[in-house]
């Protein structure tokens, strides 16, 4: 009689990596929906493009590495990476932008480092930064929120724009606000205005800031926050990183705002504008590239929060999520090395 | 702030970090009372069941009774093994045991006679026995921890420190297992009376019977039994704790009950806490009040592949196969048979292995219950394992380093504090068998530590050996020194020079005895040293002086006093001078052996040339010179024995000293060989000798070659007429009257030149020496002819 030998434990949970990844992707849906509402269906096209390219690229690399293609694709990590990149870039950006970005994220940032679990940098953010630096014009051409936009992009016109079929529907066309002026993102507008000597109060009278915080952006952020809270509830992520990002960004922004409300952006604007919530719940929480112990994660999150604030306020870019996350990624091994929990039976200091 | 005791009485609980809540699945087996299975016919009792090695007290073929001890032993942690039933020992052999490795262990195979006859049992009461007797009785009953670890209980009941708190562990946090649950329900009074024995032995301030809240019946039964018992009021209490795996772990239970952590590497007794399993309490009671040794235990037989899951009294030694068969086990494909629970139990490779004292459960799951193994996927560092870890470790980091075989780094993450509870593996979304990695890493570290320890031992041994050899050597040297000192003392003189002087005197006397003819006056000898001031030259001169003094001694009847005076002068010089003196002495001997007046000249040529060529050698190395001198001395003796004509060969040697120590020695050896040949032959064999120098060229010593050439020439010259001698005579710078005097002077001039040039032009010196030699030979030959 030959009996099966195995090492204990013989049981395990049913929550597996692919489920975790799938849940992350599903929790993105509220955010994607709201984003599509305000900024057109271009986001969905980008999403479709990104996911297809991501799976193809991953399959190709797996074939080259002589690994099981199906097993790797089924872990859904490529899906998450592609989705995050797709929602991060302007909805009507040309098709090759997302293709380049996704290829870079999957092939270079993820697979060349050894695949899932071995990458140092968050693939979506590394790709975002690559695109931002290489194609700054395309990467900053956000369309105007539909509530205040002059032209609305339908699915058809979106396709035409993204695939550069009809030059009359250039991305610029959809950036015009109702006042006929090309619109920038709220953070961009603020940054430009502040540099031009306007006060925040003066800047905030612009149509882009109608509604709470900033038109469209506030609700997009709220939707990502909702998705994040669902993930917390499902225990897909732990609260440490997200909590630390929001807390540190809030503390920094409040500090600046209290000192000089005219030249520093309000904390609310910081939290609910740009990619703050997306980063706090979906991007920075990527466990592979984050610190791993609870205390380490608090540090990691706090660092991202502070970096976001510093780069937004004093740096050259209106938003800073990608840079902040990548910089914190670099520090994660360092944090992990120095921040270790006290083990059972070891008194403090040991 | 409440004291710990007050909090214990209140039932305060603390949080243990981490932990998981796996499906309990306990109702499968805890629905019926503990039952008995039909007696098996064959039992396997491994002899070193627990604790130290013991000797068998039975042999093959012996009849044994139920409860009879099979072993004897005296060690502190020795635990006897008992026959689980009456019958015959059919074999004592290596047999696979109940262990993940199935490694064979020496086992008694007992065939049951079906009678199940007890041996004589001696029931006692606590009052009858002293504490030591109680402890011995527990030991002799072979009681080991029944929770799984099977640590000898009498050791834990006899701690070195004061015990304040005893925790009776009825947690049973592993899924499926219900043996303690059923034991508490069915035998609560016996357990409480066992607790009474523990209380009597340890006299703690509090006894906590801890039970998880998923066993309310057991908790009730224990509380009722406690109320019925005669334990002092207020000492013992039942504390129900929330269900969480692994609360039953000793360290975790202590943390939950007291809030204290057992320091890493320490045992609970150091905190004044001891934890005993309820099963152990029951066994202690059986041993004291019934006199029964530990020969059976409650085992949960469970899993969907078992027809009648439940708890059964199984004699220790019953094979797993027998036990499973009697509860209608249905084997499925790729069946796992797990000893213990699903979290920490191990799978058996074969079933013909015995139930042991720590075997609390046999789990035979179906594929619905425990899924087939899945492939390990990449760690995404989600950190869920760290959240679940009750030891507050970072399993993801441990895994990272364990997988990379960086075991030292894994150790730095406190790998040794891992209790292998399996929580991390349980929660891992990537199905990584983390505990397996840690086991491998722990074993590797253990092996590494052992190798390090052995290497350390080997190093200590090696160093001790070196020290010993060194000591021995020193002792030998000290002894030799002592002996040398003794010898010197015996010679009644500590001064080597004095010895040398004495020897020289002896030689001089000999010469004196044999001297017959006259020689040049001693006056001429004193003139030569005055011409030189250099210490080396002085040494040379001293040597020459001595030689002349000898000659004088040979010629006249010079008194010993004068000789002493000469040697005293020598003493002023350095070692070289002494050596020269020694050489001179040796030659003096030779001279002494030669009686004829005319032959006196020949030894002189040899002597002077030897002494004369030495200084250039001195400039190179002191040792070399001594060696060469010794060699020369030895040869001189030989030559002296052979005949005066051979002396010429000796002169060739010292010249080589100037070049190199080795070369010199080689040359010396060659020269020696030649000298011997010469000694054996006479002058007519010279042609043979002349051929030999060719071999010297192979040794690339120009000096020796030159010497050889010089030698050959010298010989040829020696065969030639006296006209050549006349030429040689014309050379001396110091005016002399007799031919006897010419030779030393020729040598001396050559020597003086070479001494000055030697630092830069050793070769020239050698050549000069060779020429001098050649001339000396000529002189010698002429002397011979004169003799003839």
UniProtKB/TrEMBL annotation, chain A:
It is a multi-pass membrane protein. The complex is composed of six subunits: RnfA, RnfB, RnfC, RnfD, RnfE and RnfG. The keyword Transmembrane helix applies. Its main location: membrane. Keywords: Cell inner membrane, Cell membrane, Electron transport, Flavoprotein, FMN, Membrane, Phosphoprotein, Translocase, Transmembrane, Transmembrane helix, Transport. Belongs to the NqrB/RnfD family. It comes from Shewanella litoralis. Part of a membrane-bound complex that couples electron transfer with translocation of ions across the membrane. It is found in: Cell inner membrane. Its EC number is 7.-.-.-. Its cofactor is FMN. It holds the Pfam family NQR2_RnfD_RnfE. This is Ion-translocating oxidoreductase complex subunit D. The lineage of its organism: Bacteria, Pseudomonadati, Pseudomonadota, Gammaproteobacteria, Alteromonadales. InterPro entries: NqrB/RnfD, RnfD_bac. The modification FMN phosphoryl threonine is found at residue 185. The chain crosses the membrane at residues 95-113, 125-144, 216-232, 239-259, 265-284, 296-314, 320-339. NCBIfam families: PRK00816.1, rnfD. It is an enzyme of class 7 (translocase).
Automatic annotation (TrEMBL), chain B:
[4Fe-4S] cluster 2 binds at residues 389, 418, 421, 424. Residues 473-496, 595-619 are annotated as: Disordered. Residues 473-485 have a biased composition (Basic and acidic residues). Binds 2 [4Fe-4S] clusters per subunit. It is found in: Cell inner membrane. Keywords: 4Fe-4S, Cell inner membrane, Cell membrane, Electron transport, Iron, Iron-sulfur, Membrane, Metal-binding, Repeat, Translocase, Transport. [4Fe-4S] cluster 1 binds at residues 379, 382, 385, 428. Its cofactor is [4Fe-4S] cluster. InterPro entries: 4Fe4S_Fe-S-bd, 4Fe4S_Fe_S_CS, Ion_transpt_RnfC/RsxC, Nuo51_FMN-bd, Nuo51_FMN-bd_sf, RnfC_N, Soluble_ligand-bd. Residues 370-397, 409-438 form the 4Fe-4S ferredoxin-type domain. It is a peripheral membrane protein. Residues 597-611 have a biased composition (Polar residues). Gene3D superfamilies: 3.30.70.20, NADH-ubiquinone oxidoreductase 51kDa subunit. It comes from the Bacteria. Its EC number is 7.-.-.-. It holds the Pfam family SLBB. The complex is composed of six subunits: RnfA, RnfB, RnfC, RnfD, RnfE and RnfG. Belongs to the 4Fe4S bacterial-type ferredoxin family. RnfC subfamily. Part of a membrane-bound complex that couples electron transfer with translocation of ions across the membrane. This is Ion-translocating oxidoreductase complex subunit C.
């Amino acid at each position: 009689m030959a009996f099966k030998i195995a090492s204990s434990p013989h049981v395990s949970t049913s929550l597996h990596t692919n489920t975790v990844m799938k849940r992350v992707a599903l929790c993105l849906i509220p955010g994607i929906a709201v984003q599509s509402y305000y900024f057109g269906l271009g986001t969905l096209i980008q999403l479709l493009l990104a996911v297809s390219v991501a799976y193809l690229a991953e399959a190709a690399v797996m074939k080259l590495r002589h690994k099981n293609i199906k097993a790797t694709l089924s872990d859904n990590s490529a899906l998450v990476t592609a989705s995050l990149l797709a929602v991060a870039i302007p909805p009507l950006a040309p098709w090759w932008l997302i293709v380049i970005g996704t290829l870079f994220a999957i092939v270079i940032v993820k697979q060349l480092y050894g695949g899932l679990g071995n990458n140092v940098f968050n693939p979506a953010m590394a790709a975002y930064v690559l695109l931002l630096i290489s194609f700054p014009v395309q990467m900053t051409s956000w369309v105007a929120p539909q509530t205040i936009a002059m032209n609305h992009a339908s699915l058809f016109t979106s396709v035409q724009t993204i695939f550069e079929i009809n030059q009359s529907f250039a991305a610029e066309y959809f950036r015009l606000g109702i006042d006929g002026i090309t619109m920038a993102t709220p953070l961009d507008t603020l940054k430009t205005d502040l540099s031009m000597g306007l006060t925040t109060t003066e800047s905030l009278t612009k149509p882009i800031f109608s509604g709470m915080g900033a038109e469209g952006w506030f609700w997009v952020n709220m939707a990502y926050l909702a998705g994040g809270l669902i993930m917390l509830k499902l225990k897909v992520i732990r609260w440490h990183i997200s909590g630390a990002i929001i807390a540190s960004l809030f503390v920094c922004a409040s500090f600046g705002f209290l000192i000089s409300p005219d030249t520093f952006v309000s904390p609310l604007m910081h939290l609910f504008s740009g990619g703050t919530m997306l980063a706090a719940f979906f991007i920075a929480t990527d466990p592979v590239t984050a610190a791993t112990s609870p205390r380490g994660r608090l540090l990691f999150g706090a660092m991202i929060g502070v970096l976001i604030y510093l780069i937004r306020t004093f740096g050259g870019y209106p938003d800073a999520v990608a840079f902040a996350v990548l910089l914190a990624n670099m520090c994660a091994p360092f944090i992990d090395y120095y921040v270790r929990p006290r083990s059972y039976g070891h008194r403090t200091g040991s | 702030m409440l004291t710990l005791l007050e909090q214990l009485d209140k039932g305060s609980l603390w949080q243990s970090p981490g932990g998981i809540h796996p499906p309990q699945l306990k109702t499968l087996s805890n629905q019926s009372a503990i039952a008995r299975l039909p007696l098996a016919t064959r039992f396997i009792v491994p002899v070193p069941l627990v604790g130290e090695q013991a000797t068998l007290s039975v042999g093959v073929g012996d009849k044994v009774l139920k409860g009879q001890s099979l072993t004897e032993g005296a060690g502190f942690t020795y635990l006897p093994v008992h026959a689980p039933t009456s019958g015959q020992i059919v074999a004592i052999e290596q047999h696979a045991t109940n262990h993940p490795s199935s490694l064979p262990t020496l086992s008694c195979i007992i065939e049951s006679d079906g009678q199940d006859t007890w041996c004589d049992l001696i029931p006692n009461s606590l009052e009858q026995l002293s504490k030591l007797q109680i402890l011995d009785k527990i030991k002799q009953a072979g009681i080991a921890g029944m929770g799984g670890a099977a640590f000898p209980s009498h050791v834990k009941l006899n701690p070195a420190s004061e015990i304040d708190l005893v925790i009776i562990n009825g947690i049973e946090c592993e899924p499926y297992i219900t043996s303690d649950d059923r034991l508490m329900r069915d035998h609560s009074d016996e357990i409480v009376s066992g607790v009474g024995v523990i209380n009597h032995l340890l006299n703690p301030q509090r006894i906590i019977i801890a039970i998880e809240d998923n066993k309310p019946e057991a908790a009730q039964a224990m509380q009722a039994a406690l109320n019925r018992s005669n334990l002092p009021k207020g000492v013992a209490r039942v504390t129900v704790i929330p269900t969480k795996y692994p609360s039953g772990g000793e360290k975790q239970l202590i943390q939950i009950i007291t809030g204290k952590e057992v320091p890493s590497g320490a045992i609970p007794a150091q905190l004044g806490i001891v934890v005993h399993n309820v099963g152990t309490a029951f066994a202690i009671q059986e041993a004291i009040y019934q006199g029964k040794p530990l020969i059976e235990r409650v085992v949960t037989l469970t899993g969907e592949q078992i027809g009648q899951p439940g708890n059964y009294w199984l004699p220790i030694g019953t094979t797993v196969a027998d036990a499973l068969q009697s509860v209608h086990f249905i084997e499925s494909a790729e069946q796992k048979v797990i000893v213990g629970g699903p979290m920490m139990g191990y799978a058996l490779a074969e079933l013909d292995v015995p139930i042991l004292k720590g075997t609390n459960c046999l789990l035979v799951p179906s594929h619905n219950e425990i899924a087939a193994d899945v492939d390990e996927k990449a760690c995404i560092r989600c950190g869920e394992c760290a959240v679940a870890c009750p030891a507050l470790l970072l399993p993801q980091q441990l895994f990272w380093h364990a997988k990379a075989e960086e075991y030292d780094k894994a150790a730095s993450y406190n790998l040794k504090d891992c209790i292998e509870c399996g929580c991390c593996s349980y929660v891992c979304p990537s199905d990584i068998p983390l505990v397996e990695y840690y086991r491998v890493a722990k074993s590797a570290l253990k092996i590494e530590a052992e190798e390090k320890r052995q290497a350390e031992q080997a190093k200590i041994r090696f160093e001790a050996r070196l020290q010993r050899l060194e000591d021995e050597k020193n002792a030998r040297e000290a002894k030799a020194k002592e002996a040398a000192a003794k010898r010197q003392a015996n010679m009644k003189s500590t001064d080597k020079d004095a010895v040398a002087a004495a020897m020289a005197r002896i030689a001089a006397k000999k010469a004196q005895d044999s001297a017959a003819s006259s020689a040049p006056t001693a006056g001429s000898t004193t003139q030569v040293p005055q011409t030189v001031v250099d210490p080396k030259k002085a040494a040379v001169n001293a040597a020459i002086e001595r030689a002349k003094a000898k000659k004088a001694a040979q010629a006249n009847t010079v008194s010993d006093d004068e000789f002493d005076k000469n040697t005293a002068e020598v003493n002023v010089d350095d070692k070289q001078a002494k050596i020269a003196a020694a050489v001179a002495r040796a030659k003096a001997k030779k001279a002494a052996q030669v009686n004829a007046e005319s032959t006196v000249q020949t030894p002189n040529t040899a002597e002077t040339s030897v002494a004369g060529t030495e200084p250039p050698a001195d400039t190179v190395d002191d040792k070399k010179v001594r060696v060469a001198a010794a060699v020369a001395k030895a040869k001189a003796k030989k030559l002296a024995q052979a005949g005066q004509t051979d002396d010429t060969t000796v002169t060739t040697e010292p010249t080589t000293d100037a070049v190199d120590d080795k070369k010199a020695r080689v040359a010396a050896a060659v020269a020696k060989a030649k000298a011997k040949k010469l000694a054996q032959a006479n002058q007519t064999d010279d042609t043979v000798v002349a051929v030999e120098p060719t071999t010297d060229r192979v040794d690339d010593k120009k000096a020796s070659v030159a010497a050889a050439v010089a030698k050959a020439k010298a010989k040829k010259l020696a065969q030639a007429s006296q006209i050549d001698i006349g030429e040689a005579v014309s050379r001396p710078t110091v005016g002399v009257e007799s031919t006897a005097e010419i030779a030393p002077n020729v040598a001396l001039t050559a020597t003086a030149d070479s001494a000055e040039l030697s630092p830069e032009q050793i070769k020239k010196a050698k050549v000069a020496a060779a020429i001098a030699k050649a001339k000396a030979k000529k002189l010698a030959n002429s002397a011979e002819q004169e003799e003839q």
